[in-house]
Design brief:
33% helix, globular, Rossmann fold
């Protein structure tokens, strides 16, 4: 099962204007994942594209979108209020462009964390759960759980896909943090993967194999929700 990719536009916020989005819609889609990008790479990044293609094969449509700073070609992310408004606008736009599909949201790194912050502040309408590729819990070398303290306010099923070599998420800190969250999130650890889910050659596993594993698992997790 492959997906047809169409480009769309929506208003991220009143102050930041319009941004682009890519809807990957398989013929027999069973759900829709609103998919925010990481801080340093936009919706067309190789990781975003590869994940969207694989999810489409599993019947999961994706709605990738740019945050305003990325749309404008800037490197520094917008202030948090604009990022949060963009997440909410993206969820609404996804429903408008692909109505009738069960909805989950999240993203890669920053895109995922901004989605969780938005959901913790106020429920994202229609969203049944959140899924994260490499949740960024802290800056490299600054191990802390402060950026994850809001997760207890989300109150939705959550899926965390994390690598053991991820310098932005010490698993010794993330694991007990998630154990205190209700409902209990699902944590899937990819042994040997870094923040970008790249594997060392000596691991015997390729990046493609890891991507297949994560997208299969995400699709199964979404299916259980719906």
């Amino acid at each position: 099962m492959s997906g047809i990719v169409t480009e769309h536009h929506f208003i991220a916020s009143k102050s930041s204007g319009e941004v682009s989005a890519l809807l990957t819609l398989p013929e027999e889609a069973t759900s829709l994942y609103v998919f925010g990008h990481g801080a340093g790479a936009g919706m067309r990044h190789q990781f975003m594209d590869a994940a969207s293609q694989r999810l489409a094969r599993n019947g999961v449509a994706t709605f990738r979108y740019n945050f305003p700073y990325m749309e404008a070609g800037r490197k520094v992310p917008n202030p948090a209020p604009i990022l949060l408004k963009t997440v909410r606008s993206a969820v609404a736009a996804a429903v408008a462009f692909a109505p009738g599909l069960p909805l989950v949201a999240g993203g890669k790194s920053m895109g995922g964390r901004m989605t969780s912050h938005a959901a913790a502040a106020q429920a994202l309408e229609g969203v049944l759960g959140l899924a994260f590729f490499g949740f960024p819990l802290h800056a490299p070398g600054r191990d802390s759980d402060q950026r994850g303290m809001h997760l207890g306010d989300v109150r939705l099923p959550m899926l965390f896909l994390q690598g053991t070599r991820d310098k932005l998420a010490n698993l010794d800190i993330l694991t007990p943090l998630l154990q205190a969250v209700e409902p209990q999130p699902t944590l899937h650890v990819v042994d040997g993967a870094d923040h970008g889910f790249h594997m060392l050659k000596r691991s015997g596993r390729s990046d493609d194999e890891v991507m297949d594993e994560m997208c299969d698992l995400l699709a199964t997790w979404v299916s259980a929700l719906t």
